[in-house]
Each structure stands twice: as C-alpha cells, then as structure tokens.
Design a protein that fits this description.
Layout lengths: L2 E12 L15 E11 L4 E7 L4 H10 L1 H4 L7 H11 L7 H22 L4 H4 L7 E3 L2 E2 L5 H14 L3 E5 L4 H14 L6 E5 L6 H11 L4 E5 L7 H10 L4 E3 L6 H10 L4 E4 L6 H14 L3 E4 L6 H13 L32 E3 L12 H16 L10 H4 L8 H4 L1
Parallel strand pairs: 5-6, 6-7, 7-8, 8-9, 9-10, 10-11
Antiparallel strand pairs: 1-2, 2-3, 4-12
Helix pairs in contact: 1-4, 3-4, 6-7, 7-8, 8-9, 10-11
Length: 405
C-alpha cells in the first residue's frame, strides 16, 4: 500500500453565538480547521483534522508541503513517517508541540487508513476499549453571573455531572463565577472544574484557590505559568483543591518532568498538542505508571478530531475522568456525514464502531464550509482574530487586561 496524494482543505464551520465578550473577538464565531485527506493506491482514504492555532493559511501550506516526503510511502509506517517529518522540517530544534499543530491531522488520517485496512475501529487497533461510553463535562462560558447560574442549572437538569469554566482574568470575578455555578448546581455530587490557563502568580493562585475551596472544586487547571514547575508544585502543596496540569505537560517530553517533580494530581492530554496520537498514548501510559488519572482536552474541534479523541479515551485505561468536547456542543453543523456527532444520552459520547476513526466526510458540507472560510474569514482578514479570548493570552493576560475585556 502506498500514499498517492494528500489534500488539505481549510474550513470555517459556524458555532452558536458566544456569550463571552471581548474587544479581541472579531469576525464570525466559528471553528477553523484544515481537513486532511490521504489517498492510497488501494483505494483507502484516511481523514484527519488540523487545528488553526497558527492560522489556516500556514497549516494548509505545511500539510500540502508534506506531499514530496509522504507520497510513495506506506501509510501504515506511521511512527516512522511522523518522526521523519519532525526531522526533515528541522522541528527537533523547536518544540514538538509546535510541529504537531500541522502534523496531527496527517497522523490521524494515517491511523484511519491503518484501521480501515485492518477492518476494525481504531480503538481495537490500539488494543481494545476500556470504555465505550465517554463521559463529557459541560462547559459554561464566562458571562453575567446570573447567566452562569442559569446555564449550570440547565446542564445539571440535562444530565451533566461535571461543569467547567475559564478563570484567570480577575481573582474576585473568578471566585464569584464559581459561586454562581455552584448556586445553579447546588448538589455536591456535581463537580466543578476551573481552568486558569497559567494566568496567576504563585501567591495569587494560592489565595484565590483557597477562596474557591468552599464551593467544592474537583480541580484547578494549570494555575501558574507552564515553564515554572516549582511554582506549580508550591501551589499544589499549599492548597486542598487538587491541581491538574495541562500546558506544563503538553507533550510526553514535558510530562516526564512534571511527573518527576510530583507537581500535579491529574493531567489533561490531547493528541493534537502532544507528540501526535502516538505521543498522547505514551503520555497516558507514563501517567498510568505514576498513578495519575487523565482527562482529555478539546480545542476548537470538529467531528473528525473528536472521533480521534474518543478512540484515545476508549483505549487508554486511565482516561477515567470526564472529558472535554468544549465548543463542539455548540456546533451548528460539521463537515462529517449527517452533521455533528450528538449524545444519545447526556453526558456521554459513544465511540464510533465502524472501521477506521468511524466518521466520513460529507463532500457538499466540506465544499460549503471551505467557501465560507474563504469569503468570511480569509478575504475579510479574520484569519487570526476569532479565537476565544479567555484562552488566547494565557500567562500574558495580566498584561492585556484592557484590550481583553
């Protein structure tokens, strides 16, 4: 079996209107992604999805530029091919995380081909499933406090057992937001998670987390800058609320240092952030060896990447906590056949069972949302201006408060 072509298609798929307001947010509320299709001489077509962190123009160009290196290769030599891309693009001199923004869609497409050719769902190729129903958290956007209370109440009534929101802009407002969520989800059986995205100094983190403790927090995600693991450990040792690492353990190469430092209680992982889907499964294994439970991350995801994540969660034993599908719950449509993947029973997503990653591309939808991207994003200059402001600035939030709010 040989690769005969690779196609990269940038798309913009609309989301429901956002409740979070920011001077930084411009253009339509969309999920941006590059849809990757890898074709083989045996007739298989593998599909993947690359996120838009660097901009779709850059990601599309990188995916297209791999043709010279991948055409003629056996698509099942996945680990070798991805490592060769890292080396040939000189990305061993940069952070592997940067490389994987573009390469993750290619790798998922290769895994799709491998599982299709083996006539089994991807999770079986990866050794079988520990779970077929994947619990998801309910994400609550930052908005007026009354709105957060109402959304929390609605989500609990719908069946969600875990609620999540972004924090890290203003400590007093953050504590008030958590209190508002707990007001709408009064039962302590409902877990609350908060994500600071590295925004706090050590002292501010400790002080703020201690104020939040009364509301019953399952964990605080990445309270301090990712580069200072000692600070992360200081926070962990100074509060009663568990600490989850994310940016500090983006890749398996980072995670080893977080584990050795005993700096976190839990970790959040994602194949599009790690050293690929192979890397995220290695990271999960390392965390398992350290006795650490995992939750899966999500970031502006369409159904192709979500399907890949479900197979990761299913096949790794210690993805034993509720996971994120983030903005996907607000998708109006998708590029996959039959539109967005939906829950049959809240809060669970089911792992696709057909060979490969278990979803297929709807050609008409793909063309429609490629055209939408070109006309409404690229031509209007919104290529890098549609991201969630609570995520974008991370540890620089305090420097940009005036323009973020």
């Amino acid at each position: 079996m040989k690769i005969i072509d690779i196609k990269a298609t940038p798309v913009a798929v609309p989301l429901k209107p956002s409740m979070t307001k920011s001077k930084m947010r411009k253009g339509p509320n969309v999920v941006l992604a590059v849809i990757v299709q890898v074709y083989t001489d045996d007739g298989y077509v593998g599909i993947g999805e690359t996120p838009a962190v660097l901009g779709l123009d850059i990601s599309t160009a990188i995916v297209n530029s791999t043709k010279a290196l991948l055409i003629g290769e056996d698509p099942r030599n996945i680990n070798l091919l991805i490592k060769k891309l890292y080396v040939r693009y000189n990305l061993t001199h940069l952070h592997i995380h940067l490389a994987n923004w573009a390469f993750s869609g290619i790798e998922l497409a290769l895994w799709d081909i491998a599982a299709q050719s083996a006539n089994m769902p991807l999770y079986q190729l990866w050794g079988g499933a520990f779970r077929k129903k994947i619990e998801m958290q309910g994400t609550i956007e930052r908005q007026e406090l009354s709105g957060m209370t109402e959304v929390a109440s609605q989500m609990v009534k719908a069946g969600y057992k875990t609620l999540y929101t972004k924090i890290g802009m203003d400590p007093e407002d953050d504590v008030a937001a958590v209190a508002a969520i707990r007001k709408g989800a009064s039962s302590r059986d409902v877990k609350i998670r908060v994500d600071a995205n590295q925004a706090w100094s050590t002292g501010v983190a400790i002080n703020t987390i201690n104020k939040m403790e009364q509301y019953g927090i399952e964990w605080v995600e990445q309270p301090v800058i990712m580069y200072n693991i000692d600070a992360l450990l200081d926070v962990k040792n100074s509060v009663n609320v568990p600490i989850l690492g994310h940016e500090a353990n983006w890749t398996m190469y980072d995670l080893i240092n977080v584990i050795k430092s005993n700096a976190v209680d839990y970790v959040k992982l994602d194949g599009r952030f790690d050293a690929g889907y192979t890397g995220v499964r290695i990271s999960a294994g390392m965390a398992e060896a350290a006795g650490i439970q995992c939750s899966h991350h999500s970031f502006y995801t369409l159904g192709i990447a979500l399907a890949g994540s479900l197979h990761v969660i299913a096949s790794c034993p210690n993805f034993s906590m509720a996971n994120s599908m983030s903005e996907y719950a607000g998708m109006i449509d998708d590029v996959i056949t039959d539109g967005p993947m939906r829950m049959k029973e809240v809060p669970y997503m089911e792992v696709p069972e057909t060979p490969g990653i278990g979803v297929t591309i709807d050609k008409e939808r793909l063309a429609k949302y490629n055209e939408f991207y070109v006309k409404e994003i690229f031509e209007k200059g919104f290529e890098r201006e549609t991201e969630m402001p609570y995520y974008t600035s991370m540890y620089m939030r305090t420097y940009f408060k005036d323009i973020l709010n």
